[in-house]
User: Fold this.
Amino acid sequence: MKHIFIINPAAGKGKSMELIPFINDCFKAKTDDELVIEVTKYPGHATEIAKAHSGSGECRVYSIGGDGTVNEIVNGIAGTSSALGVIPTGSGNDFIRSLHSETNVKDVIAGTINGIERKIDLAKVNDKYFINISSIGFDANVVFNANLFKKKPGITGSMAYLLSIIYTVFKHKICKIRVDIDGNIIDMDALLVAVANGKFYGGGIMPAPDASLDDGLLDICLVSEVSRLKILHLFPKYIKGQHGVLKEVSFFKGREIRIQSDEDVCLNIDGEIIEAKTIDFQIIQAGIKIIMPV
Assistant:
């Protein structure tokens, strides 16, 4: 088996690179396996590396970084027989929370190298794949601003999101959108819309607490317009996945979702922010292989 470790050197404020000797040690006794370690040099590089190796045959591709690195690798191996291993060294590390609770990185590495492959659902938005959560509105602006806060020394992933929520309350504009969920049309003034395959994002926030990685469905959380004061009341519940009790919150499940707006809206795709007026989501059941640590 060919094992490709793709390392984001900026993840964990540089600590990802310190794992290379341990990875090499893990393969000393695995003489039948091929080990390749690649270090990313620019945004999108992980996609290029993953695509190049996956195109030459089945392999295991390991993400050593945060959720952004995971997303890049997913876009490199989607549609191939390669499997994804997730080694969490970023600031949020949210996708891994839907898989297991192990937090010791070296244990995760050793367990994943010897892990069992399992198929889970893969999602797509417009021309990009994602594996965790995509969102628009207030939430996407929170992600954008949180990325700015994360660059400050001493600010953790969770702290960055909390600071960003407070900051974004005073900057956000309400989105007028049409949402089509498998033919069910909803016109709304939206605070945010989250479309989820996994359960967690933003450093442990739970927008769709019933989301499952292998049910063949996307979970959609719609939050309608609320006052700035109520946003501060809503988000503590939103963080804990308890926001379903609020009248402004609705949950749906679907296979194909279209969101349309007359103006460009910010779209968050596993931490990457782009802008669009028409956004199409779809679920690909059992569309990707993931490696579960043992």
In short: Residues 8 and 41 are 8 Å apart (CA to CA).
